[in-house]
Records
---
Amino acid sequence: MKKTLLLATLASLLASQVFAADPVKARKEVFKQYKQTFGQMGKMTKGSTPFNKDDFAKLAAHLDALAQQPWQYFPVSTATGKTASETDAKPEIWSKADWKKAIDTHKAETAKLKQTAASGDLGAIKVQFAAVQKTCKACHDSFRKD
Ligand code: HEC
């Protein structure tokens, strides 16, 4: 038990060190999980995967947790583009107040989707899913290279 705990602590320490050394890699990792989670949700709203209320609610809760994470991995030290890993982030992230606004709007819509998902009302879920999708696109249009 103790050994497992120690190993887990070591592993997370190592992970945070890797992330500190390479924040670009860290944020991309989170965005990859975004894609996976959001993709599964999208399939359910479109009906290409059968809609399951409980599964969808779990995915929405996971997305809401993910929505808290990437932004800490955008330190100003990565603004030059000369980072250990290649980045598609635009330098405007560090010069425009809209960046913070884009994050806040995204987080608000994601939190709302989590709430709507708990209701299980597919019609309302579809509307709110689209609202979240809009915040992804809006931010990518302004702050991510094509
Ligand atoms: C507030 C801004 C913002 C929001 C909101 C946002 N993204 Fe991004 N996203 C970025 C930026 C900036 C990058 C580029 C990161 C880099 O290359 O350093 C990115 C990169 C990505 C990538 C590519 C990761 C890689 O491996 O290179 C995916 C996939 C992605 N986002 C998916 C999403 C999805 C899905 C959503 C919505 C559920 C979303 N993003 C919401 C800013 C945002």
Note: DSSP finds five helices and no strands in the chain.
---
Amino acid sequence: MQTSDLDQLQLDKLNRLLGEVWEHNPFYTRKWEQAGATLRRLASLDELAAFPFTTRDELVADQASAPPLGSNLTHPLGAYKRIHRSSGTTHAPVYWADTALSWHWVMHCSQALHLISGTEPGQRIFFAMALGASSGPWILFESACRLGCFCIPAGDASDEEQLQLLRQFNPDVLIARTETILLLAETAGRTGLKLKTLGVKKIIAPGQTNPRASALREESEELWGAKCFDRYGLTEAGSVASECLAHTGALHLLETEFIAETIQPDTGQPLTDGEAGELVLTTLGRIDRPIIRYRTGDWVRLARNHQCPCKKPGALLLGGVRRIN
Ligand SMILES: [Zn+2]
């Protein structure tokens, strides 16, 4: 897609989002009125800068003041059909609600990322992630089912049971956090099972924000004889970016569904292409509970003028994603 075509597409989606959110979504309507942001329709993407950033602390405070979900709701509560929450390991948990329509958009994004990472309909995917309160594993699982993959959920099984299932089903793809991948390897080592005989060709390890991520990735690849692919998402946004088959450590960001900015975290000043800073996201299709200019707290190098060896155009997160704090 040409840059001008992408800009127009983003602008059209953004104006639709603003049209739905103004007056209907109490959180953003109040926030923008207080900030003096009055634009109802933008003439160019540059005008988005007139709107204030959204922070996680604001969402948490809003949720606490109007429990259980806060006021970032574009429709009455009855329209929402799913509730998930962030893991809350380092911060207060945030609950995220979706209507059927906004969940469909989340699925659409995740399916696109599965395809970017080379996952195809018909492939067998083993999920060593529990389907619990947080949205990440559900998104990965349900979107793979919709894509037409053969999906094996095993997150609640013991290490031994998971290895048994892996032996039985010989999946093409294993989806698990790096810690789980290494734990399975440890258990396999104790029982004399050679992981390389299981036939896993690809490992998708979402959330590689660990500072030791690249070392853990190399270790995983060596143990399993499979390539390890990174993927990035967050509760508030859904699935945002994925590594492609070029396997360079850079992630393709779905710019048709998100507007991404980078800022200097201390000053909020915008950064130029390829400069490292905090990622700021706007979800163009999760209209029913959006994030608009949301400070993710994640550190990236967003580059639009960098050609990935796979030749797919568009923005890249060079070197993956790291947590700022
Ligand atoms: Zn690529």
Note: Residues 244, 246, 252, 308, 310, 312 surround zinc ion (CB under 6 Å).
